[in-house]
């Protein structure tokens, strides 16, 4: 059972009483009669053939309060798209599959590329962005949850708890971030959050000084969780990164656009496990190495927009400060693991810290060399301003794909 401690500038909604999932689901069904509820699922085709997604869909199809499910499908050819349509046809809720690699959506992407308005790289950020556009275009859901498709420990109440803060009409939250303990198979996971993000925020506080933004970011118990929910109006003006800085970028945008009292975090699972990325010690273009560089750049860019000046000397100081703090955390997590009978490989933990420290310097050097670099995808408000009927074009493309191929 969790405690009730409020640890920062955003509200934390705990799992205090192990409430019966059916009770919350019944409440959500009542809320859905006046505030329609939706779900976004950004997916790779390969996940349809994995262990997690079939189990997720088997549980989601029993959810009665969802008005719409939007699936973003990446890395799929025509036959794979047809298979996806068949795979998701078991869902009784209204649902659509966005074939992101199909000719119709590719034509829309090319049109946006010509105006400098399209995502610059492939990945989850791009997938989520197009799903957000379709949500705006369809208008079928007012409060929407988003979660990953590789959750191996998925339970129905994860979705219930994730949606509840933005579904309950008595709450005023525009955005809710999920959190959970990254413990599975007798191990503590979540290395990037534990060993990079948390000590990096502490190190930035020491080198940059007091900053409301850093206090806000330090409030989140699991800032890299891929699960969050939001009211539909959030989608109009949010700019999301297309790289691995997606989660940090979304939190930063919410800080820019909303007061902290409109933002919360919610405990959504007692255990959580999903696909793990490689540490990639020798490959800064992949795995946790690239992720750590993108995340570090996301923090640096955000602080720069608030007037903070960075130099090569400051980045060296930041690296040294981070390194000492992160090593202290390794000992803390080892003690926590031992007391709970869990495994923690100190050697691999310290190797990760060493790599993250070097990558903070790499991120800083990249920022200094390319200060105008921006991975943010334009907001849908800006895109609509440039192409007023773009949302209707997007919806039509998705509907035509569905109509043409679902019957074949």
UniProtKB/TrEMBL annotation:
UniProt-listed InterPro entries: Nucleotide-diphossugar_trans
Top-level taxon of the source organism: Bacteria
The protein, known as: Glycosyl transferase
Native source organism of the sequence: Colwellia psychrerythraea (strain 34H / ATCC BAA-681)
